[in-house]
Amino acid sequence: MTSVVTLGRGPLLLAGSGPELGEHRRRWGPLARFSATELVARCRALDLRGRGGAGFPLADKLGAVARGRGRPVVVVNLSEGEPASHKDVTLARTSPHLLLDGAVATARAVGARQVHLVTGPQGVAELEQAVGQREERLRFTFHRAADLFVAGQSAAVLELVAGRPNLPVTTWQPSAHSGLRGRPTLLSNAETFAVAGVLATAGPEAVLRHGTPLEPGTTLLSLDGDGPPATRQVVEVAHGTRWGAVLPPSRLDAPVLLGGYHGTWAPAGALHDLPVSRRALAGAGLTLGAGVVLPSDGRCAVRRTAELLDYLASQSARRSGPCLNGLPALASAFREVVDGRPRLDEVRRLAGRVDGRGACAHPDGTARLVRSLLVACPDAVDGHVEGRCCR
Amino acid sequence: MRTLKVDWPACRARGLCFEVLPEVVRLDDWGYPVVEGPVTDDLLGSAREAVRMCPQLALRLVKG
Ligand code: SF4
Ligand code: SF4
């Protein structure tokens, strides 16, 4: 239930001007108009990357959409299929006009007249209210995603917007060239649009005030997002912040799952010396994905992974053969490891068998999760194989 | 260079691609194709045949 997350606070995107347009304008200033070239240059200068997980540069997407044939369409994705992710709904409730400013500025820059807003199954009342106050000559259309882990994948979101079942399909071409009904389609995550909203109102300086020269700005994190509702938090931190300032050092002493269920396990203690930075984390073989952070604390990371694999196997949309057969096989081989049987080679083999072999990245993400555990917690894994669980 | 791409939701593990193009395609535990490496120029003819023969129209030759 996303509605029970305490609204987050933060220095930039979550500074919170609320759903009143007047108050929002007083805080952020008027919305500037940009040509596609200008907006591309501004996004490039800030190295603004997609915040939905893949981290693709927005400037490249914008450029491709602007060069495409036909009238472009803009799609703002805040559907968050992952149960532990709450940052986009928090953003949409706290600063709805900021992400709308970003969507409007991009739509105008590329010449789109239609903006699609894709929320989770419950919708976001604050965003609907905010759209009602906008006076731009654009058509805003709301869509609610299905309650399914893979519903938020971009190909699945485009299916939903096109009026088909909200499931991933095989894409032969990037949607920037040929997306909705063959039109160039700019689909990105809500947080990405909110940063574009800052660019188009307060200007790049407002972003550059935070973060590091290489990675300006901030990032939203969902902490303990699948824990008891009272413990769930969404925070906004400047890039370059030490992890020790985000989580109590004691929690960093245990393995932390970064990037959510499709993410990577950071070994116990590894985050002590690392900043919140996609570059630095990538250098350590870790991914921040869409900003989901799940400390393991007292729980065994091996058992936790087994539970997640069961869940992920159950969330296969059961369309791609290797995914619908391979994920349950992988989950059950891993269960055997947990129960002390020497099936590690089989786990590795099956991870290779599913990786890259689906219409969406669900099998790839699942393989990444299990492989990262084997790297991050080799002793705990060996302990299980030898019949003694660490806890 | 071309690569054989599979439309996974369409593929029904009939295995014809493996019969036509064993140089590039193997079958996995469940009979679904495993595409191993790119399609080299000398195999382009067989690869096109595999695309034509696939009963589910689940194969495409893509650049790269
Ligand atoms: S890879 Fe799995 S989850 Fe993704 S579309 Fe195929 S069956 Fe569905
Ligand atoms: S011939 Fe087509 S349906 Fe059959 S296994 Fe190959 S890709 Fe799948």
Automatic annotation (TrEMBL), chain A:
Keywords attached to this entry: 4Fe-4S, Flavoprotein, FMN, Iron, Iron-sulfur, Metal-binding
NADH-ubiquinone oxidoreductase 51kDa subunit FMN-binding domain residues: 45-194
Cofactor field: [4Fe-4S] cluster; FMN
Claim: DNA damage is one of the keywords in the record: no
The keyword Metal-binding belongs to this UniProt entry's keyword annotation: yes
Top-rank taxon, per record: Bacteria
Gene3D superfamilies: 3.10.20.600, NADH-ubiquinone oxidoreductase 51kDa subunit, NADH-ubiquinone oxidoreductase 51kDa subunit, iron-sulphur binding domain
All copies of domain NADH-ubiquinone oxidoreductase 51kDa subunit iron-sulphur binding, residue ranges: 306-382
Protein family: Belongs to the complex I 51 kDa subunit family.
Protein name, as recorded: NADH:ubiquinone oxidoreductase subunit F (NADH-binding)
Organism: Nocardioides marmoribigeumensis
Automatic annotation (TrEMBL), chain B:
Any Pfam family: Fer4_15
SUPFAM superfamilies assigned: 4Fe-4S ferredoxins (SSF54862)
Protein name: Ferredoxin
Organism of this sequence: Nocardioides marmoribigeumensis
